[in-house]
Amino acid sequence: MEVLVFLVPLALTLGLIGLMGFLWSLKSGQYDDLEGAGWRAIAEDEPVDEKPIR
Amino acid sequence: MQATRDFSHYVRDLGAGLSHIDLAVEGVSCAGCMSKIERGLSALPDVTLARVNLTDRRVALEWKQGGLDPARFIDRLAELGYKAYPFEPVRAEALETEQASFLLRCLGVAAFAAMNVMMLSVPVWSGNVTDMIPEQRDFFHWLSALIALPAAAYSGQPFFRSAFRALRARTTNMDVPISIGIVLALAMSVVETIHHAEHAYFDAALMLITFLVGGRYLDQSMRRRTRAVAGNLAALKGETATKFVGVDEISEVPIAAVHAGDIVLLRPGERSAVDGSVIEGQSKIDQSLITGETLPVKAGPGTAVYAGTLNLSGALRVRVSAASEGTLLAEIARLLENAVQARSRYVQLADRAARLYAPVVHAAALLTMLGWVAFGASWHDAIVTAIAVLIITCPCALGLAIPAVQTVVSGAMFRTGVLLNSGDAIERLAEVDRVVFDKTGTLTLPELDVANAVDIPEAAFALAGRLALSSHHPVAAAVARASGAKKPLAGIEEVTGQGVRGYVGELEVRLGRPSFCGADRLADRILCNDPEASVVAFRYGKVCHVFAVRQRLRADAVSAVATLARAGIAVEILSGDREPAVMHTARLLGIHEWRAGVTPADKIARIDELKRQGLKVMMVGDGMNDAPALAAAHVSMSPVTATHLSQATADLVFLGDRLAPVVAAIGFSRKALRLMRQNLWLAAGYNLLAVPLAIAGLATPLVAAAAMSGSSLLVILNALRAHRGVKELS
Fold first, then answer.
1. Strand B617-620 and strand B635-639: pairing?
2. Phi and psi of B345, rounded to 5°?
3. What is the mean pLDDT of chain B?
4. Which pairs from B719-722 meet CB under 8 Å and 24+ separation?
5. Do A26 and B31 touch (CB under 8 A)?
6. Which of A11, B371, B615, B712 is buried most, with the most CB atoms less than 10 Å from its CB?
């Protein structure tokens, strides 16, 4: 059962990383527009060479 | 005088030479629009950010200061085919957004903690029946406590705060038993862990929080969404005023930038956006949005003008006054205040359930404890069993029973065009057995329309419409709208106070007063039949036609009233308009109960009379004169075209030109109330099964976890049935 010494901190760390990730995504506004985000994924990419007109 | 547009009021300075503005945009609905707008705006020089929010239908823009005028963005969007308007987030909405992200943080913390604790609990449950040594179990329990205690302290805040507020006001609500359950479960688990016991309930407490915060977040996000839509609609109404910035220099500014004492110009055909009094000019004004009276009144220096007043004929200069100066306005403000104070404090279904539930559950727990002691168990065992009873009675299902239904129903209402201003409106709306309508702007459409379109040849109608595009007069505007004309005629001259005229080929065309077109006799005949109408004559060569223009009933008003009657809901009209007009409408709709020429005070008196008869009254109105009655009624509704005051007072707001949403909302809310009651019974029935187990001391943490998620799922699934419409009112 010595393996617990590694596994338990590992599990806690992973959980904390997950929570931090969630809080970060929340803070960076990723939940502000849930509808638009879905559409953006399938929208066409902008042409690379497009320069501002005028 | 050409007005410049000044949007500087809406621009925020971000520092570092950047400016920011939020625009509400009409008609954004898909990915295509999104990339079209973003590319179209990013192509402008100096724009550093253009991002569409599809949920809120808004665009956030940032650009380098200097050179660029925000009005340029609006023009660019117009070129792309979208109507946009600067948007200023109201304080209430900012608070809701803040609240939503707090709930989401709580949900995240609770969910991650619950998952991790569950991961530790499962080995304990399986170890208890196999060969786990007590030291390992204690270790796992301590780890669970380490995760659960801080997580619960943080994510339980919404409940603890609300429960604390309720207790301080010496009442109870649903959050009181929830908070007691969470705190006791955690406290007992810690004590048990210290004493090396077999069972701890950390997972149950966290799961409870997770489910409940989830329900609360859903509920909140739906409300936030309707608020965002309402905010956009207010912005898209284009609330601007033409303000004098010099002696003869004018500028178009947002309402928020107009202050008392400023002088604004009110052109013919414009709706006033401010309260004030006329200082120069003569005109006729339509006060129907304020008083319900459809007959135009004369306005000259000294006449009071209110926001919503339509200027019909001449240009007026208006000095803006502080909102409460006008006599009518002051009277309405006073009545409104009284009505809001007198509004009987409605106790929500959830809180009524909590008042029954909490004492019963807490008494059961107490009796369990005393019972076990009487039967010779130790105090420790008796207390543990009693707390297990509290945990297993699961305020979880009860806490979700109502928010789940509210969320689903408000979503369904949103799709039919009804926005909710207050959460408990659904429950009150379901009880309605009498609907009181205002006439002008509520049963009728707010805009004027041609009543005798069928009598006029199509070609003449189309030509008259194109001619009418050159006139600012609201009656002519109605003709233009009804004809669907897009291209104005060239070379049209306006004759002040008479009408417009011009030439099509060789023949002269005129549109205006009957005398201006030589059509007096025709006009008199129409006025004899329909004394309420306004007439406008059209002459093409020698041929004359006369249009009768009036406020038309909403297209489905007759069927909506009939549907309400079939559902056993009596309908009546309370209008500030004159008797013949109201009688005419009532007869068309088959409504027997109507009152005309009613003042705001009379409206309240009538609603109070109905209330005394024990009726649950819904008031539907749009005018400023309806606002006190809206507040006095059991529940109230406004069309989206209503005055600010009415919309803010009403519990629900409906969109569009039809009355169908009003009927549908009643149907939805009745179904919702039924489902809420069902859910409460489901939760109670579940308790009836689970509580004996807990009293007998058989509720292990495993049983508690299974029961809690099972009952919550059941309640949520039942709530999902609410999104399908209703049979009885469709």
1. parallel
2. -65, 105
3. 83
4. B719/B400, B719/B401, B719/B404, B719/B405, B719/B407, B719/B408, B719/B675, B719/B679, B720/B408, B721/B675, B722/B405, B722/B408, B722/B409, B722/B412, B722/B668, B722/B671, B722/B672, B722/B675
5. no
6. B712
Per-residue model confidence (pLDDT) at position B346: 64
Question: Which of A17, A34, A40, A44 would you mutate first to test chain B, the one with the most B CBs within 10 A?
Answer: A40
ipTM of the complex: 0.80
CATH topology for B413-445+554-667 is: Rossmann fold (3.40.50)
Distances (CA, A) of A35 to A39, B56, B102, B217, B318: 7, 9, 20, 17, 45
User: Contacts of residue A54 in chain B, CB cutoff 8 Å?
Assistant: 43, 45
Residues 6+ apart with CB under 8 A from B632: B339, B342, B343, B603, B604, B607, B608, B619
Do B1-88 and B447-552 share a fold?
Answer: no
Q: How far is CA A25 from the centre of its chain?
A: 5
Strands (E), B490-578: 493-495, 499-504, 507-512, 534-540, 543-553, 570-574
Q: What pLDDT is attached to residue B322?
A: 61
Phi and psi at residue B192, in whole multiples of 5°? Answer: -60, -40
Q: Is some CB atom of chain A closer than 8 A to the CB atom of B29?
A: no
**pTM of the model as a whole:** 0.77
Tell me what pLDDT residue B324 has: 43
B255 Cβ partners below 8 Å, 6+ apart? B239, B240, B241, B273, B274
Q: Is B438 a catalytic residue?
A: yes
The C-alpha of A1 sits at a distance from chain B's nearest C-alpha, in angstroms, of: 9
Domain assignments of chain B as residue spans, ordered by start: 1-88, 413-445+554-667, 447-552
Q: pLDDT of B512-531, one tens digit each?
A: 888 888 888 888 888 887 77
Instruction: Work out the pLDDT band at B2, boundaries 50, 70, 90.
Output: very low
Smallest CA-to-CA distance from A39 within B369, B493, B413, B33 is with: B33
Cβ under 8 Å to B: A residues 13-42: 15, 18-19, 22-23, 26, 31-36, 39-40, 42
Of B554, B552, B551, the closest CA to residue B661 belongs to: B554
Q: Distances from the Cα of B417 to the Cαs of B90, B409, B413, B658, in angstroms?
A: 22, 12, 6, 10
Cα distance from B639 to chain A (closest Cα, Å)? 27
- Domain B447-552 sits in CATH at 3.40.1110.10
pLDDT at B581 over 80: yes
Nearest to B108 among A26, A43, A52 (CB): A26
| pLDDT (mean) for B652-661 | 88
Do B112 and A19 make contact, defined as CB atoms within 8 angstroms? yes
CA distance B491 to B240: 30
Highest mean pLDDT among B43-57, B627-641, B686-700: B627-641
Is the minimum CB–CB distance between B462 and chain A shorter than 8 Å? Answer: no
Task: Tell me which of B438, B577, B622, B651 is the catalytic residue.
Answer: B438
Distances in Å between the Cα of B669 and the Cα atoms of A22, B170, B176, B431, B635 are 36, 30, 27, 9, 12
Q: If you search the block for the tokens 């915060």, which residue do you land on?
A: B213
Quickly count: other Cβ atoms within 10 Å of residue B143's Cβ. 19
The secondary structure of B335-402 as a DSSP string is HHHHHHHHS--PPPHHHHHHHHHHHHHHHHHHHHHHHHHHTT--HHHHHHHHHHHHHHT-HHHHHHHH
Is B199:B185 a contact under the CB 8 Å cutoff? Answer: no
Exposed (0-12), middle (13-18) or buried (19+): which is B259, by Cβ within 10 Å? exposed
Comparing alpha-carbon positions, the chain A residue that sits nearest to B147 is A12
CB B255 within 8 A of CB B412: no
Fold adopted by B1-88: Alpha-Beta Plaits (3.30.70)
pLDDT of residue B627: 85
